[in-house]
Write a structure and sequence with these properties.
This protein is mainly alpha-helical and 349 residues long. It has twelve helices and no strands. It has one domain.
Length: 349
């Protein structure tokens, strides 16, 4: 009985430690400032992203775009909803054709990828690792992540639109009637949350210059979603009942509310990244790495490291490592665990 009762305590203590370290690193890495920077890139990226999504959803017909607008109304706070719906309607009425339309979509994808590029920088700060990937690797990666994100969002929007009438037909066929539609209207939100969780995990995996497995990133994605939902609800409650944005900012109150909401969203996403980083640090310490050692993850690439990066992290260029193995290298080097630096200990922030 004694050992059984001690197990929850032993489990809770590490969990509290991880959360405490996550909160500490959240402050130490100046995440609020990074969230502000990401908000700037969000503004530059979100409207090109909406253009791509509206164009793809529009392939399913006018009613699909109208249902997309209804979905935005269900998700976003009041003033944010009005701004987004207005943008969607303008894009809906300004569609092009032919080569110019394709060029416009490509330009929109490139603009939207700016957010992923900025998130890469923030993620490297979170993981305490310099950017070692050359530009010819980071640029295609950020564009690929952007395309996957936009396609998944578009497919999700179309799926929600198309499967609503489909659920009604299935319900009529099996005699369930409107109950099938009611069930789907409830079930579609968890499905969309799973899609968002996967997108967060994809971003957490691709952004940092750190070797990570995709499955180990689920805790951060879950935390980000929960914090985002709760924070958005509280912010909507605050704006609707206590704030005086209209008196303070007048006609641009909606824009200010939208910017604050984007900042809150980016705070939630970065908080999830911090949790994943601290879980990774805990695994590194459990495998024998000293607690103060950084970086605690193995870089994906070191080719773009400068001399200061190599000196502070202890990681060499892959070609230098191969030369060292063929020549004179430290006898303990092959036994080092992945992620352990070969230089002197020291923090990098």
């Amino acid at each position: 009985m004694g050992s059984a009762s001690a197990t929850p305590g032993r489990t809770a203590a590490p969990a509290r430690g991880v959360l405490k370290r996550t909160a500490g690193e959240f402050k130490k890495d100046n995440v609020t400032a990074w969230a502000a920077a990401l908000t700037y890139y969000s503004v530059l990226s979100i409207f090109p992203a909406i253009l791509v999504v509206v164009s793809l959803v529009g392939l399913a017909g006018q009613s699909a775009t109208d249902d997309l607008i209804d979905g935005i109304g269900d998700l976003a706070p009041g003033s944010v909803r009005d701004l987004l719906i207005s943008s969607v309607r303008q894009l809906q009425g300004g569609g092009g054709a032919g080569v110019l339309a394709i060029v416009g979509l490509l330009a929109a994808v490139w603009s939207a990828s700016g957010y992923v590029g900025a998130f890469m920088q923030a993620s490297n700060v979170v993981y305490d690792v310099p950017e070692g990937r050359p530009f010819w690797k980071t640029i295609p990666l950020r564009v690929a992540v952007t395309i996957v994100t936009l396609v998944l969002l578009s497919v999700s929007a179309v799926a929600v639109v198309v499967t609503g009438p489909l659920a009604r037909k299935v319900g009529d066929g099996i005699g369930a009637g409107s109950q099938a539609v009611t069930v789907w209207n409830i079930a579609k939100w968890p499905v969309l949350l799973l899609v968002v969780a996967f997108l967060f995990m994809l971003l957490y995996w691709a952004a940092p210059n750190a070797k990570r497995g995709l499955r180990g990133l689920a805790p951060g994605a879950l935390l980000a979603i929960v914090v985002w939902i709760v924070a958005s609800a509280l912010f909507a409650l605050y704006v609707g009942n206590f704030a005086s944005y209209n008196k303070t900012y007048g006609s641009i109150a909606g824009v200010i509310i939208f910017l604050v909401w984007l900042w809150i969203t980016n705070l939630a996403i970065l908080l999830g990244a911090e949790l994943n980083a601290e879980l990774e640090r805990g695994r590194a310490i459990a495998s024998g790495m000293p607690a103060g050692e950084e970086p605690y993850v193995e870089p994906r690439d070191t080719r773009a490291f400068d001399e200061e990066d190599r000196r502070e992290t202890g990681w060499q260029d892959a070609r230098e490592e191969d030369d060292g193995k063929r020549g004179v290298s430290g006898p303990s080097a092959p036994q080092e665990a992945p992620g352990v630096r070969r230089g002197d200990p020291g923090a990098r922030h």
